[in-house]
Amino acid sequence: MTEETGLLRTLAEDLSVVVARDPSLTSRREALGHTGLSAVWAHRVSHRLYGRGMRTAARTVARISRRRTGVEIHPGAVLGRRVFIDHGASVVIGQTAVVGDDVTIYQQVTLGAVGWWADNHRPPGARRHPVVGDGVILGANATVLGPVTIGDHALVGAMATVTEDLPPGARVYAARSVIRPASGPRAVPPLGTGPVPVARTSAAGLGVPPVAGRPGGPVGASVGDRPPLSVSDAVRDLASAGSW
Questions:
Q1: Which long-range contacts (CB under 8 A, 24 or more apart) does 28-36 make?
Q2: What angle do CA 11, 13, 16 make, to 5 degrees?
Q3: Which of 98, 122, 130, 244 is deepest in the core (most CB within 10 A)?
């Protein structure tokens, strides 16, 4: 991270990087309403107040920013130059986190601590949050926990979780979702046709239609004469009866 520059110059750089990286924006004037830009600018102010010992004022600015943008950045966190927060919803950056220059952060990213059960045993003033190098990209819902270091120009993909140091240029991806081929369309009878299913009550309190061949006795039997129905059986019965 480069040396600290003047506040006005830093704010101007923040505006320029939003215009450069968000293709939905067509002008600098339009970029002034960008949620991520508002959050970064508010943090620039709160961080300076925090560094001068005005902690209550710093937290007030941070809280107002969180309510207006959905981005929670502790006033003690250090942000480098040209940090771009896209969308911004539910981004969390902890107190001792350090974010380098030219970092891109997407929605729901967490730069957090491991938890109080571990942090309470650290020496006073010890770092509890990540250090993110220059040029890093943090994908949507990426989570980086603990005093780890993310090397320059690394990429943490969407949904990935990092709890150890990453070398420069590393790539971290979450497991992909499993895609299964369809077993064929299931015919759904039109509304108002077919017999009306008669519900039987299970121990779980679910009303499901009786299914031939399943233990449970005749429809007219009392509830106490039938065995309890599990949730999985209830779901299966509802699906087979076309009531799902």
A1: 35/69, 35/70, 35/71, 35/85, 35/87, 35/88, 35/89, 36/69, 36/71, 36/84, 36/85, 36/86, 36/87, 36/88, 36/105
A2: 115
A3: 130
**What does the chain come to in residues?**
244
Cα–Cα distance, 129 to 112 (Å, whole number):
5
- Which residue do the tokens 């926990």 mark? 145
Rounded to whole angstroms, the Cα distance separating 131 from 74 reads: 14
Compute the distance between CA of residue 3 and CA of residue 48 in angstroms, rounded to an integer. Answer: 15
Task: Give pLDDT tens digits for 27-78.
Answer: 999 999 999 999 999 999 999 999 999 999 999 999 999 999 999 999 999 9
Tokens encoding 21: 């990286």
For residue 102, give the amino acid letter: D
Q: Strand pairing partners for 132?
A: 99, 150
State how far the Cα of 220 lies from the Cα of 222, in Å rounded to an integer.
Answer: 6
Token couple for 201 = 């009550």
In DSSP terms, which residues pair with 110 in a beta bridge?
A: 92, 143
Q: What angle do CA 207, 211, 216 make, to 5 degrees?
A: 75
E strands along 174-242, which residues?
Answer: 200-201, 207-208
Kindly state the DSSP code that residue 44 receives in the 8-state scheme: H
At residue 53's C-alpha, the angle toward residues 73 and 82, to 5°, is 40
The pTM assigned to this predicted structure is 0.73
The CA distance from 62 to 231, in Å, is 46
Round to whole Å and give the CA distance between 130 and 118: 15
